[in-house]
Amino acid sequence: MPATGETVTIISGNTIKFASGASSTDDAYNDFDIELLRTITAEDGTSQVQRQTRTITDYDGGTKIATVNTTWDAGLEPT
Fold first, then answer.
1. Labelling 40: which of 19, 72, 73, 75 has CA 20 to 30 A away?
2. Three-class SS of 15-66
3. How far is residue 41 from each of residues 2, 6, 25, 64, measured CA to CA in Å?
4. How far apart are CA 64 and CA 74, in angstroms?
5. Residues 6+ apart with CB under 8 A from 78
6. What's CA 33's distance to the chain center, in Å?
7. Smallest Cα–Cα separation from 73: which of 10, 7, 29, 30?
8. Per-residue pLDDT of the chain (79 residues; tens, 9 = 90+)
C-alpha cells in the first residue's frame, strides 16, 4: 500500500495505479481503505484540502492497479 505522501495515479473513475514498490501479490490490498488528498489554491489565495476515502475491492499485483468501490469525485479523475 502506498505510504502517506506517496504519489499514485488515477487511471479511471474507479481505478488507481500504485507505485512500483507496491505488492506484486494479487488481492493484497482488497478491503483496505485508501484516502486521497489534493491541495488546491482557491481564488482568494487560501489553500483547501480535498479528501476522498474509498475501499479497494480488487487489486492486480502484476499491474499494481486497484479498483475501488465508488468512483472518485469530480476533480480527481483524469480528464
1. 19
2. EEECCCCCCCCCCCCCCCEEEEEEEEECCCCCEEEEEEEEEEEEEECCCCEE
3. 25, 20, 38, 31
4. 23
5. 10, 11, 12
6. 10
7. 10
8. 555 556 778 888 899 999 888 999 999 999 999 988 888 888 899 998 888 899 999 999 999 999 999 998 876 554 4
Instruction: Provide the residue count of the chain.
Output: 79
Joined together, the cell numbers standing for residue 55 give 475501499
* pTM, to two decimals: 0.78
Q: Do 68 and 76 contact (CB within 8 A), yes or no? A: no
Q: Which three cell numbers stand for residue 3?
A: 505510504
